[in-house]
Design goal:
This protein has 129 residues and is α+β, with helices and mostly antiparallel strands. 19% of the residues lie in helices and 28% in strands. A hairpin with a 2-residue loop joins β4 and β5.
Length: 129
Amino acid sequence: FLATEPEAVAATFTRCGRGRGHACVVDGDTFKLGNRSIRIIGIDAPEVQARCAAEARLAEQATARLQALLNEGPVELVGRIGQGRDRYGRDLRAVRRIRPDGSVPSIAAEMREAGLARRYLGGFRSGWC
């Protein structure tokens, strides 16, 4: 697909909330960099504002896992040309880890493989309860 130039990000991510830092994790598919909110393309994770206890547990696990993945080292953000933002104003980006061996695994794929996110390409989302 046609993509934007990769944007390298090296930051220490905290959880979003009062007194958060420059980089923080909102939930299992969204994080913030300064004033920017970034939604990871290709996945849907359980919502922190859960509809049931099972979703709340999964949301906590997904949020913690995304924070850990982002803190493993530098990542790069790549957007699709023409699909820069979602209806909530979040930047839509593929997020890939930059490894010393030159490989760039997808954070979305890692979240799906851990069972903490589902494939999502827009449209209807099924519930987590």
